[in-house]
Amino acid sequence: MCVAAAAGVALACPAVTLGGGVVHDVQQFGFGFFPNTVFVEEGDTIRWHWNDGVHTVTSGEPCVQTPLFNFPLTAAAPLAEWAVPDGSHGVIIPYFCLPHCSFMTGRIFVGVPNPCPADLDFSGVVDVSDLMAMLDRWGRCAAPCAADLDASGEVGMIDLLVMLAAWGRCP
Ligand SMILES: [Cu+2]
After folding, report:
1. CATH of the domain at 38
2. Spacing, Cα 157 to ligand 1 middle (Å)
3. Which candidate among 33, 47, 86, 152 keeps its CA 20 to 30 Å from the CA of 1?
């Protein structure tokens, strides 16, 4: 099964989800992964989709490779898929792209709640761009709706106050 990627090689990972977990799609555009942070559970599957250039999806802190996974993400290998293994609950798994290792990065939170939900663009800071993203969703907002910080079903003044209270660098 796809968890064998823990050996470090993207062998024949099936295109279907194992174990009925949730599939989380991540798009590569330019030198970034979008979203660059995903919140998953054990048994979920993460799929990275290539769009341009030559990249990899490699586990580890930026430029420091670990053996968990290492997938090419290129025109010839436009889809990388990894099943979140059992036993990783409570872990934050960083990853990066080998050719652009210092700045093309992402993180996988396994069973770890989002420490900074008001950071809608995952920049590490709650700032004007998050405010613009919230205003863009102002009003009724069907789930999943990241800007609906109080989970009320609409984006409004309470959400704005929650965002302002979290203004600045994320914990
Ligand atoms: Cu890259």
Report:
1. 2.60.40.420
2. 39
3. 33
User: Containing domain of residue 83, as a range?
Assistant: 2-110
Centre of ligand 1 from the C-alpha of residue 103, in Å: 9
Task: Tell me, in angstroms, the distance from the centre of ligand 1 to residue 98's CA.
Answer: 7
Q: How many domains does the chain have?
A: 2
Does residue 138 sit within a domain? yes
On whether both 105 and 133 belong to a single domain, the answer is no
E-state strands within 35-145:
37-40, 45-49, 55-59, 70-73, 79-83, 91-96, 105-110, 125-126, 139-140
* Domain closes at, from 66, 85, 110: 110
pLDDT by position in tens, the chain (length 171) = 334 333 333 333 333 445 568 999 999 999 999 999 999 999 999 999 999 999 999 999 999 999 999 999 999 999 999 999 999 999 999 999 999 999 999 999 999 988 899 999 888 899 999 999 999 999 998 877 899 999 999 999 999 999 999 999 998
How far is ligand 1, taken at its centre, from the CA of residue 67, in Å? 18
Q: Which residues of 134-148 are buried (b: 16+ CB within 10 A; e: fewer)?
A: beebeeebeeebbbb
